[in-house]
Amino acid sequence: MLRLVALGYLAALLIVPVGLVVYRAFEDGIGAFIESITTPEALHALWLTIVIALIAVPMNTVFGIFCALAIVRRKFPGHGLVNSVVDLPLALSPVVVGLALVLVYGRQGWWGGWLIDNGFQVIFALPGMVLATIFVSLPFVVREVVPVLREIGDEQEEASATLGASPWQTFWRVTLPAIRWGVLYGVVLTTARALGEFGAVSVVSGRIAGRTETMTLHVEERYQAFEIQDAYAASVVLAVLAVATLLVMTLLRREET
Amino acid sequence: MSSVAQPVARPLRRRRDGALSLGVTTGYLSVIVLIPMAALLLRSLEGGAGAFWDAVTDPQAVAALKLTFVISLGVVLINAVAGTVIAWVLVRDSFRGKSLVNALIDLPFALPTIVAGLTLLALYGPKSPVGVNVAYTTAAIVLALLFVTLPFVVRTVQPVLLELDRDMEEAAQSLGATSFQTFRRIVFPNLFPAILSGTALGFARSLGEFGSVVLISGNQPFKTEVASVYIFGQIESDNITGAAAVSVVLLLASLAVLLSIGGLRRWATRHDN
Description:
The complex is a heterodimer.
Chain A: H1 2-26, H2 29-37, H3 40-73, H4 79-91, H5 94-105, H6 112-117, H7 126-136, H8 139-152, H9 155-162, H10 167-196, H11 199-205, H12 215-224, H13 228-256
Chain B: H1 17-44, H2 48-56, H3 59-92, H4 98-104, H5 107-110, H6 113-124, H7 138-163, H8 166-174, H9 179-208, H10 211-214, H11 227-236, H12 240-272
Helix pairs in contact in B: 1-12, 2-12, 3-7, 3-9, 3-11, 6-7, 7-9, 8-9, 9-12, 11-12
C-alpha cells in the first residue's frame, strides 16, 4: 500500500512529466529534433553553457578543497561565519544573486562604471554569467569534502610532516588521495548545477540570443516565442546531461565501495 | 551529519600551510559572496529606513511575499509526509527496479529548474494529454515547488532510517504494540530531527525558487506572483530599490533557516552521544 502511494506520487510528479517531454520532443521524428537543436542559436547556447562550466567548475573545485581544509583543519576567528556563508548559495534565491552582482558590476554598480570605462564589461557579458554560475555552484565541493576530511583525521598528515614532507608534498601525496572521492562527487554536482543554472544567469546576461544565451535561457526564449518544439528539444538535451550526472554519481558510488 | 565516529578533537597547532587555505577561502568568499551581499544590503537602505519600509510594504510586494511564505509552508508539510513515506519504502520495502527509483529521486537536483517547469507544464498545462490543466494557478506553483524540493526530506531521512536499530521496533511489537504505535513511539522520534532538517532545507529552497515557477505560474500580480518573480519584474522595470528591499527580506529568511538548521544539527548530534 505504502509502496503504491510512494510510486504513484513519484510517477505523477516526476516520471510521467519528464517522460512526456521526451516523447513530445521526438513526436515529429528524430529529424525535427536534430533540426531544433542544431540551429545557430541552440548551438551557440550549448557552446556558451559549456564554456561557463569549464571556467566555473575548476575554480570552485580548487576553492572547495582549500575551503574544506580551512573549515576542518584550522581554528580561526569567524569560523562559524565561513561555514554559514558557504551554505548561503544553497538557500538564496538565484534572482537575488543576479541582482547583487548587478549592484556591484553593473553600470550603476560599485565597480561596474569604472570597469566599463576601462573596456571590461561584466554584466550582460560572459564574466557576469561566469560569476553568477560560480556563486550558485560554490557549496558542492566544500560540502562533499568536509565530512571526508573529518573522517580521515589528521594522523597521516602529521606523520608525513614529521617525516619531513613539506606541506605541499603532504597535500599531494597524503591528503588529496584520501579525499579524492569526495572531490569527485563535488565536481559532478558542481557541473550539474553550473549547466542548469537559470535565474541568476537570466538576470545578469541580458538574454541576447546568439550572444549571451545559455541552454536554459534558450529553453525559456523558445517557449516564450511559441516555438514549443524547440523548447522541448533543448530541454531533452539538458535532461540527458542531468541523467548522465546521476549515472556518473551512481557509478562513482559503486566504484568507491 | 555522518554517523561515523568523530575523531576526538585535539588541540590544533599552528601550521604554515594554514595561511594559504585561509587566505584563499576568505578572499574568494569575499569577492564572490560577501561583497555582492553587502552591495545588496546597502542599496536597499540607500534611501533610508523609510524608503526600505515603503518598498517592502508595497501592496504588490506584500502579496508576493505572503504567497511565497504560505505556499512554501504548505509544500514543506506535504514534503515531510511524502518524503518520509518514500524514504520508508526505499529502505524497508523491496521490489523490482528499486535502485532505479532510488537514483531518480535525485533527478530534481540535477534537472535545470526551467526544464522542470516546462515538464510540468507539458503534463498539467493547457495541452495536458490527461485533461488536467492547473497552469497559471497557485496549484501550479505548489506542483513546481513539490518537484524541486522532492529530494530534501527523502535524502535526509533515508540514511537515518538505514541505521535505525530494528531491535527496538521488534521489542515494541513483541510487547503488543500495533504497528502504528511502534511507528509513532519508536520510529518517528528517531526520524524527527532528520525530517525537520530536510523540511527546513526544502523551505529555504521554496522561498527563493524561480526557474521552475516562472513558466507555469503565469506571474499575475496579487494572484500567482511569488517573491523571486516579483524581484525579477522589478529589475526589468528598473525599480532597483524595490527589488533590493524584497531581496533583503528573502536573504534574511534564508539566513534564519540556515542558522536554525545549524542549531538543529548540534541538537541532533548531542542526542546521538
